[in-house]
Known about the structure:
Chain A is mainly alpha-helical. Chain A is 68% helix and 0% strand. Chain B has 10 helices and 12 strands.
Amino acid sequence: MNSTGTAVLASAQPPRKLWLDHVQEWLTTVDHKRIGLMYIGYALIFLVVAGVEALLMRIQLSAPDNHFLSPEVFNCMFTMHGTTMVFFVGMPILFGFGNYLVPLMIGARDMAFPRLNAFSFWISAFGGLLLYFSFLGGSGLYGAGSAPDVGWFAYAPLTAKLFSPGHSTDYWTLSILLSGIGSVGTALNLIVTIFTMRCKGMTMTRLPLLCWLYVVTSWLTFLALGPLTAAQIMLCLDRFAGSHFFDVQAGGSAVLWMHFFWIFGHPEVYILVLPAFAFANEIIPVFSRKPIFGYPAMVAASVLIGFISLGVWAHHMFTVGLGPEGNAFFTLATMIVSVPTGIKIFNWLATIWGGKIRFATPMLFSIGFLFQFLIAGLTGIMLSVAPFDWQLGNSYFVVAHFHYVLVGAILYMIFAAFYYWYPKMFGRMLSEKLGKWHFWLFTFGFHLTFDTMHIPGLLGMPRRVFTYPADRGWAMLNQIETVGGFIQAIALLLFVWNMIQSYRTGKEAGPDPWDAWTLEWATSSPPPHYNFAVDPVVHSRRPLWDRKHPESPDTHYE
Amino acid sequence: MSLVSLESASAASAGISSSLTQLRSLAAWASGAPANIFAPQATPAHTIFGLSLLVIAIVTAIFLAVGGLLLYALIRFRSRPGDDAAEPRQIYGSNQVEVLWTVIPVLILVVLFLATIRVISETERARKPANALDVIVLGHQFWWEYRYPKQGFVTANELHIPVSDPKAPRPTYLTMSSVDVDHSFWVPRLAGKMDLIPNKTNVMWLDPQTSGLYLGQCAQYCGMEHAKMLIRVYVDTPEQFAAWVEAQQQPAVNDPRVAAGKEIFLHTACVNCHTVRGTSAHGVFGPDLTHLASRDTIASGVVKNTPANLRQWIEDPDSLKMGSLMPKMNLSPHDLDQITAYMESLR
Lengths: 558, 347
């Protein structure tokens, strides 16, 4: 019925449009699906850029006392890599999927505030451009360009005018400020959409888990972006108006910045990882052919993670001299997060248990996620032990740990989400053959790089060094990491090729290629502008299961 | 290691030296790197090592249990080619099981937390013995200043401390701060790291049990040459340490053979930043040079303290450490030779 509606609508449109019309349509759109796709496309471009930055660093570190990059350039590279990946890849790609999926999954026709949605996207996008403009204008247009080189958490007082002359740090501050405005707008939009625009019958206890996770992640965004924005404004005032918040020469505090930054920075990790959990909550059940195990426990665990993650920030500061009480408190708080996180892993395991697992590419990436997130969580427990952190903190062990989270868990679930929802977005399947190549090659490269990366940390290699002496025993390990980095890059190219190729020649997907259960699969692929011709009505958490199995609908069991 | 192997190559015949180098690198690989956190030689590092073994044992057990179950489930419950099209039994959850996998992790965490606060307390609440050695550590972009207040001298980049006798411990207390940006003092085989933060004073202590040289480096990004802000800690026997203190307390030697170099040094901008005790050079921005020649390395551990390296450093600091705050002085070759000779005399 829906597809007929689309056909009618399509035939009513003029047959040919100028390319400029298409551009104009995309630039002015307020459709949540188009904005979602723009978020994703924009994030993918930055993913490639920040990936190239990572490879340049890996080449530099592949041999001791190397001269491939100067210290100045290397320091810009890790600052830009981190800032880009967190603010201009991670957040937009996850907001992109949220934008695209949330209204479809709750049976709505758009987000609550479509114009705010467009505004949020464009201001975030402008933030990204501003950050990269610093390569040209970082020292003023008449000087040489210089990108920010203060690290992605930009500890004071390295960001003071005295130590960071020119404007590169100003570009960094302002771009994050702007993207933060967009993030808060989107967070607000997602919360209001989920709270007020659910279709008939969809109570909060029938809400797909993906949407629950987006509620929590949006609240966290809302709460965490405030301190970050405040800190950026204070830094601007220090740099432009002569205030002394972080000016240690005039009695300001370097530790104040750390608190402000990490009270944003740690929830930020959860802002990024909760959407990855969200994808896993949808994909793992469908490919295990069972409903999610322990839905109420999963919701409770997600909300708990949200709350606890607001109280763990100073575990980034165990070496700052917090004193024994502070160190003990933040050790305990950090350990407690692992309880609800553990509940999630166990529930995914129980979902798989007794199922009939189909190893399609989305599930392969989800399985990679499960193992890698388990390891990342366990190295996280090691780091939560304050005395152990005195050794591990700021070493390559930490770099390996958080890349295990950001790549091994989050990026893997993003890949899974692409393979799972690409057919919905474009009406064509991604190639399974290329997908499997992508998975195995990327997994090989990932483990080569990031398993190995733990070891130099244990052998005393601090992060953010542009080179290292030959006598420390780190050279061979770094070389292996570099090889793994390039293998991942090749796998990523396969993925990009798969997306381009399948857009033209992929198998027709139809509305429901995975035999799935949530509402987005009830409409055509790609969905029409208005999503659903008739407002859906649901009676359980899996409306399509009920429709496919009238003999045993979920309503009997929930 | 490359310097060592180069020297040995020139000393011995090519065949022997190459096998020697191979043996050395093998030995280095087997004995671990010089900054291995799992080869502790002082007390905080020892205590942390013990705790870390407990933590690693626990997380390994969790990994094997959960990972094993996951692997088993994936193999056992895979769909097979001959399967019927029927869906598996739909299971929605179980409160008992949820309670089980909430309570067990909580119990594990209680154990882990109790073990952790014990080590935190042992390290951060340790009583300072009256005979402890005090050293003030100041972080600079990109070098370390060490002040020995009771002994009355200042040195840089190479920290000397006495080995501690377990029967009568004599730990070293480091009182730390920074004159510019954040730094972090990390010598993995001696202790965990502690940050040096401007406007803040932190204290850490070391109780080393074995004499020797321990390597580390700055562990908080501090600007362009963060990577070359290396740390060398010499744990001396009590006799060696006493002799070293005695030597450091002396004013600079005044060797008439290098009087010309001294004159040039005192009449250029060198004195704005550097101190040589016993002369009119009182600068405090750069390292104290009173006993420069007694150090094994220059530029915060970047190169060996040889006349050639020292000359290159004075001629163009950026060639050894780009971004170092020491300016290029544009000295004539003659002046360079003279100043290098003078520096080499400052034993």
